[in-house]
Amino acid sequence: MVVPVSDTERYNEFRNTDLALLKALIGLPGMQSRRIVLCGRILDESALRARVPGDYAVVRVSYDEGREIATMVTGSPEPATRPLWDDESDRVFHLSQLLARRNADHPVVLVGQRGCPFACAFCERVLIWPERRVERVEPGDLACAMRHLRDRHGRRHFVILDPVFDLDDTYVEAFCRHVEPLGVRWHAELRPDRVRRRVLHRMRAAGCYRVLLGVETFDEAVARAVNKPMRPDVVRRAIAACRAESIQTWSSFIVGLGRSVREAYRSVSVTAQTVRRENLGWAHGVPYFLYEGTRAYRTRFGDDGYGAFPRWYHPFPLPIMADLTVLFRNLIDGNEEPWKDRMVASFMDIARSGIATPSGALPGEIVASLSGPAGRQELFRSLLCGNPARTRQTLDSLAYAWHSDTPAGRYDLAEEQKRWALDSSAVQPWP
């Protein structure tokens, strides 16, 4: 039986997933190798050590006479937090030490797949495993890792972070046979056009309680441009199948896709209105992270090379990226506010109207009502409340971007934070 939870609880539970393990590349049995493929390059450990930043770890798990050992390559000789490795080596530590630093209620992230056969233009995962090749851990080995984590560390909640978990029905069914006896809960990411109710039934029996459906956009032109067209009726059928099997769904969309400001706003509007009209349930809009080396990046800016860890940018200035998330949430929720002689769902609506209060500042209640549902209240309070000059600057910037239809570019988040004089509390959490 699925215990109902609110949308906010569902989102926060997933957002608080063990991020340290999410950032680690966990080499399970079947993926053991001294050669590490990173961003399409094969690096040995010495080369990797010189290139990995200190706050990032590449982890491989192995078993030595029943004792779990994890090998970690780090760019810093000193840990940023308390030491994780044994006295014997600066590269070896007990897995229990890593897990002990996490809340036991948070899911452990496991990666059982490298590569993806699809070619979505925005996806950075192709940088890790190139040429659309796919390599998967044997389903029994993946279940074995879950059993070890359950028995030795008391972990019963997992996220399978494979790009397309339902890539192969035979693989999924074999995995479910191994996992069902364990009595654990798990979450996976599915592609809506591959969802099969028969497979969902097996997943639910094996402990799957929720799936993330990667949709990205319902704007047909934008979807074709990023090579991921996904029709609303296909997503609706996938969600209906999940509901029939008592599996929660969370549809994920990217805000900021588009070649220009107007196209990006159109994409968000079409997508959010479709989600609401089709009653697709809980949906989340994630700001677009444009990574160096992806097809979308190369198309716009050429292949100017990238390091072991490619940089990412947003395609539009920070106020626009944040306002797109505001518009997405408000259109889905049907939340509009009266402003002068019209109803508005975003700050771009206000900026385009050319109407401001005599003092040039916006009332705090309007800012809170529009930005609150999307979790952007602190950001827009900093941009639009208390300082009429800054309010005018922000609204003028939005209006100019709309009327000039500013093309997508490269905007660094740290530089944007400096440009708009925002402290860290105003931009956290981001996204």
What structural class do you assign from the helix and strand content? alpha/beta
Q: What top-tier CATH class of the largest domain fits best?
A: Alpha Beta
Shape: globular
- Using DSSP, what is the number of strands? 18
Query: The CATH topology of the largest domain is what?
Result: pyruvate-formate lyase- activating enzyme
Which regions are unreliable across 5 or more consecutive residues at pLDDT < 50?
1-94
Rounded Rg:
23 Å
Report the sheet-strand fraction. 15-25%
Largest sheet: 6 strands, parallel
CATH hierarchy: architecture of the largest domain: Alpha-Beta Horseshoe
The amount of helix comes to 25-40%
Distance between the termini: 32 Å
Number of helices: 18
- Structural domain tally: 2
Can you say what the CATH homologous superfamily of the largest domain is?
tm_1862 like domain
Residue-averaged pLDDT: 76
How do the strands line up in the largest sheet?
Answer: 7-10-11-12-13-14
